[in-house]
Design a protein that fits this description.
Trichome birefringence-like N-terminal domain-containing protein; alpha/beta; 8 helices; 4-stranded mixed β-sheet; globular; about 30% helix; 7-stranded mixed β-sheet; 15 strands; about 20% strand
Length: about 425
């Protein structure tokens, strides 16, 4: 640019140079459009959650500064909660902490504040969510924490409307609910490991059989019907298991069987997600958006779940509190496998998105039922529940993240429409 200020150039010459540069830019930029598959093309070196927020304002597409909504801290929110255990019928008994006598309420009065964002992550807007979801379908694929997440969504949406049971089978593990005003359907697909598994015959063994290269067809056969699929898996992988690949035993996790190598749960966890992603990428029927909701950690202290461990904290951790080693490793495996799948998805025109909520949920040791998920005299296997989440509670904020991601997806669609009109 120093040339533009040189005394050796006349004003006409300087004007000619500026015009030439401008013409060159306007010629080159359109040539880049075929390579820009999404509005984050030039941000691809960033964390996947660091995407620009795209909105339609007065018919004009605008972008806000990019920020990572998944990095931040919990701050007080005196306006919460937005429903109670008496106003929402969708709360599972084991997560109905107030019903079973939890005395403190501060744990429900927090919201997530992202770092480096011009505005806070908005609290969940049920009207906005249902408008985006109008005429669409959404599936929650996973275990009981996934169901916990879906029930939270139903409770938040109850401020607008309750759904009707639209289940196609009489099975509590495979429920469907429809919001008739909005023609919006949500469904739960139970799958403990994402891959094919058989539960142990407890009279003989406590080992699961996991077929790590075979996705669980109970959900893969159905996802073609859905616009949004949210997959997650975690705590069942801690259980002792025998691993099969190509119908042959290849190892195990804590099986203690002779002549079988203990490959550890991390091996099985990685393989299960790799297989699940492959099933989505290979699906000829699924044309929607898949979200990976990352691992939601437990917070047992003073022992394991079956050794008297409990979770009695009353406040969130500070945002610099380090995750435990196992949580960090499981989370890293998910990010690595998601990264591999995302690269393949781009080639195939599939849409995979990262709902990276592990750090936010790690900071909430105060949000579990503990002993308030059942009557004191009840005979339950998980007496102190530090795995699931109270409703209302921190898991409600997963839907703040989910809505933010849906808005971004809607914005990308608007941007694509605008480009099409300009082309």
């Amino acid at each position: 640019m120093e040339l533009l200020h040189s005394a050796t150039f006349s004003s006409k010459q300087r004007l000619l140079i500026v015009v030439t540069i401008a013409i060159s830019l306007f010629t080159i930029i359109p040539l880049l459009y075929p390579f820009v598959e999404d509005p984050n093309f030039f941000l691809k070196q960033q964390h996947p959650s660091q995407t620009s927020i795209i909105e339609l304002q007065n018919g004009v597409i605008t972008t806000q500064k990019s920020c990572d909504i998944f990095s931040g801290e919990w701050v007080p929110n005196p306006e919460a909660p937005y429903y109670t255990n008496t106003t929402c019928w969708a709360i599972h008994e084991h997560q109905n902490c107030m019903k079973f006598g939890r005395p403190d309420t501060d744990f429900i009065k927090w919201k997530w504040k992202p770092d480096g964002c011009e505005e806070d992550l908005p609290v969940f807007d049920p009207f906005r969510f249902l408008e985006i979801a109008r005429g669409k379908t959404m599936a929650f694929v996973g275990d009981s924490v996934s169901r916990n997440h879906m029930q939270s969504l139903i409770c938040l949406l109850s401020q607008v409307e309750y759904p009707v049971d639209a289940s196609v089978k009489a099975d509590e593990y495979f429920k469907r609910w429809r919001y008739e005003t909005y023609n919006f359907t949500i469904a739960a697909f139970w799958t403990t490991h994402l891959v094919k598994s058989t539960e142990p015959d407890t009279s003989h063994t406590n080992l699961f059989d996991l077929y790590l290269d075979e996705a669980d067809e109970r959900w893969t056969a159905e996802i073609g019907d859905f616009d949004y699929v949210i997959i997650s898996s975690g705590h069942w992988h801690f259980r002792p298991s025998v691993y099969y690949e190509n119908q042959t035993i290849t190892g195990c996790h804590y099986c203690q069987l002779p002549n079988i190598t203990d490959l550890t749960m991390f091996y099985g966890y990685r393989k299960a997600f790799r297989t699940a992603f492959k099933a989505i990428l290979d699906s000829e029927n699924f044309e929607g958006v898949m979200y990976l909701r990352t691992f939601a950690p437990s917070h047992f202290e003073g022992g394991l779940w079956n050794e008297g461990g409990n979770c009695l904290r009353k406040r969130p951790y500070q945002n610099d509190e380090t995750q435990d080693r196992i949580t960090m490793r499981l989370h890293k495996i998910q990010l690595q496998e998601f990264g591999r799948a995302e690269e393949e998805a781009k080639k195939k025109g599939k849409r995979l998105r990262l709902l990276d909520t592990t750090q936010a949920m790690w900071l909430r040791p105060d949000g579990h039922p503990s002993r308030y998920g059942h009557l004191p005299e009840a005979n339950v296997s998980l007496y102190n529940d530090c795995v699931h989440w109270c409703l209302p509670g921190p898991i409600d904020n997963l839907n703040d993240f989910l809505l933010a991601m849906l808005k971004r997806e809607e914005g990308k669609g608007l941007l694509a429409q605008a480009r099409k009109k300009l082309s």
